[in-house]
Every structure is written in structure tokens, then in C-alpha cells.
């Protein structure tokens, strides 16, 4: 009986996540999207959230982030120095499971921290920014993210609802052709201006200008209604999300998920080759595997 209750909760949560918002992934893509596996946890996060569960969230709920906007020019100076030194870049190998697909379309990053203390490379190259971030415990992850001219991020949703995404414009075209779209609503970055959004809504980004875009990108802990819910959120982040740590340079921490990602990606490359060769066969095998796993778990 318990396993059927678990299945019902899982299916109900997945349907809620799929139909939440105005923009949706195609249904069969949603069934195999990585965010599906976190659906029950995410529904819990929405239910316990102390801030509105809307695509965009006002920065007024996060007074502790004001030092970032107040210091945006100093932060920008460090970001520009990194760009000039070509340190804002794609991963050098398959060791960034969270953002691996973004690199193919031009996106680049330099990690400042990831659910832990700052990377050694960040403390060395960005001392002012890491100093400010260390005074804001609610910022769990931070990076400089670059979207060069002509780059894009296609529709996706992030897998974990325990945080709210923060973007601070540092070097922006100041042009509406350079934008992020969250649940169908567009926002164009501006220098020194911050925006916050729920990254578990479908979102995409594009730089259709001939100028670069660099932002400070942070994951900020979602405020929860009850202390025990906040403790659970931090537990999940510390023991699951933190495993996605990716290095900038040798000597930086690499999380457990990224240590095994290269092996899994080799399998994924073979799957992608099969899809190119025979797409119907690829999907038949894909859903057969998922169906077989469910039957093994739930069939008497």
C-alpha cells in the first residue's frame, strides 16, 4: 500500500510541476527531464515558502543582498579583470554536470562559491567579491556568468526549488535584445540592477546584440515559513546540491556528482548517437527502461 501512496505523490507532484506556470516543456520531455525526480521535494518547498511562488520575486524580500548592489562597481571591476584574463570560461572537461549543456551555446562561468566556502581561485582572483559574499549566509552559490554576443540558453528549468535565483547586472548591453524570459515574461539586464526569479519555472536567455553580458549570478536560500522546513532545505542542499561543485582551476573542490559525471556522459554520448541514427528506436528504448524500472518497483 505504501508504495502506491509514494507513486501517487510522485505522479501528482510531477503533474503539478508540469502544469505550473504558463510555459511548459513538451509532456514527454517533462517525463524524462531531470527536474521530474525532484518534483515531490519541490512541491514541499513551494508549500512552505515564505516568499511568493511567482516567476519573479521582489528583491525587497531580501534586505541582506543590498551590499551586493551597493558594491556592484567594485564587483564589476573584478569580473572585467577575470574576463580579460580569460578566466570566465567553459568547463575544461566533463566536470560541471549542472551547466554542461550551456557551454555548447556560448555561456561561460567563473565560480565564486558553491554551497560551501569560496573556491581558492576565487579568493585569490576576486578578494573583494568573496569578502562581500562571505557576509551574506543566505547566498549558497555564486558565480560570474558571461553570455557573449549571439549566445543563448534554451528553455529549461532548474531541478531544485530550495533557492531563488539572483542576477546583478555588471556589464550589460542595456538593450532589450539581451534578455532572460521566465515563464514567458522578459527582463532585460541593466548595469547595477538586480532581479530575482524562481528558476524552477521554465526560462531561457538570449543575447541578440553585438555586446557582451556579464552578471553576478547567485542562488539564494528560499526563506521558509517554519524553522524546521528551513533546516530540511539546508540539509538537502548540503548533502545533495553541494555535490555539484565544479572547479575553476586545479586545487578547487570538485563535488561527488562531478567526479563521476564523465563516466555517465560517455553513456549519454552513445545514447545521443543512437538518437541521431534512429530516433523512434531511441525513444522506445528510453521509455522501456523507465517503464521497466517502475514495473520492477511497483508490480507485485
UniProtKB/TrEMBL annotation:
| Xref: Gene3D superfamilies | B-lactam Antibiotic, Isopenicillin N Synthase, Chain (2.60.120.330)
Tell me the keywords, alphabetical order. Answer: Dioxygenase, Membrane, Oxidoreductase, Transmembrane, Transmembrane helix
Q: Which domain of life is it from?
A: Bacteria
Offer an example of a GO molecular function term for this protein.
dioxygenase activity
Entry keyword Hydrolase = no
Task: Using the record's annotation, list all stretches that form the Aspartyl/asparaginy/proline hydroxylase domain.
Answer: 70-223
TM segment ranges = 6-23, 280-299
Family, according to the entry, reads as follows: Belongs to the aspartyl/asparaginyl beta-hydroxylase family.
Q: What is this protein called?
A: Lipid A hydroxylase LpxO
Organism name: Tahibacter soli
Ranked from the top, the taxonomy reads: Bacteria, Pseudomonadati, Pseudomonadota, Gammaproteobacteria, Lysobacterales
Q: Which gene encodes it?
A: lpxO
Amino acid at each position: 500500500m505504501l508504495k502506491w501512496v509514494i507513486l501517487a505523490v510522485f505522479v501528482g507532484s510531477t503533474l503539478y510541476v508540469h502544469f505550473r506556470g504558463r510555459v511548459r516543456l513538451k509532456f514527454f520531455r517533462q517525463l524524462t527531464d531531470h527536474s521530474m525526480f525532484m518534483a515531490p521535494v519541490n512541491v514541499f518547498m513551494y508549500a512552505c515558502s515564505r516568499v511568493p511562488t511567482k516567476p519573479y520575486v521582489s528583491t525587497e524580500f531580501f534586505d541582506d543582498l543590498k551590499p551586493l548592489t551597493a558594491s556592484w562597481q567594485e564587483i564589476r571591476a573584478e569580473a572585467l579583470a577575470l574576463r580579460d584574463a580569460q578566466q570566465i570560461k567553459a568547463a575544461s572537461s566533463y566536470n560541471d554536470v549542472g551547466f554542461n549543456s550551456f557551454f555548447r551555446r556560448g555561456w561561460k562561468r567563473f565560480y565564486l562559491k558553491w554551497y560551501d566556502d569560496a573556491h581558492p581561485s576565487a579568493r585569490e582572483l576576486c578578494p573583494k567579491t568573496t569578502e562581500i559574499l562571505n557576509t551574506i549566509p543566505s547566498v549558497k552559490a555564486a558565480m560570474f556568468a558571461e553570455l557573449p554576443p549571439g549566445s543563448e540558453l534554451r528553455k529549461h528549468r532548474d531541478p531544485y526549488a530550495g533557492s531563488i535565483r539572483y542576477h546583478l547586472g555588471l556589464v550589460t548591453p542595456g538593450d532589450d535584445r539581451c534578455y532572460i524570459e521566465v515563464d514567458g515574461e522578459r527582463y532585460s539586464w541593466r548595469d547595477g540592477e538586480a532581479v530575482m526569479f524562481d528558476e524552477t519555472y521554465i526560462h531561457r536567455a538570449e543575447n541578440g546584440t553585438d555586446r557582451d553580458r556579464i552578471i553576478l549570478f547567485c542562488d539564494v536560500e528560499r526563506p521558509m515559513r517554519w524553522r524546521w522546513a528551513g533546516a530540511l532545505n539546508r540539509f538537502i542542499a548540503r548533502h545533495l546540491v553541494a555535490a555539484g561543485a565544479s572547479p575553476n582551476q586545479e586545487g578547487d573542490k570538485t563535488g561527488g556528482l562531478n567526479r563521476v559525471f564523465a563516466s555517465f556522459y560517455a553513456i549519454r554520448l552513445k545514447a545521443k548517437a543512437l538518437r541521431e541514427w534512429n530516433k523512434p528506436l531511441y525513444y522506445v528504448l528510453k521509455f522501456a527502461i523507465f517503464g521497466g524500472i517502475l514495473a520492477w518497483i511497483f508490480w507485485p
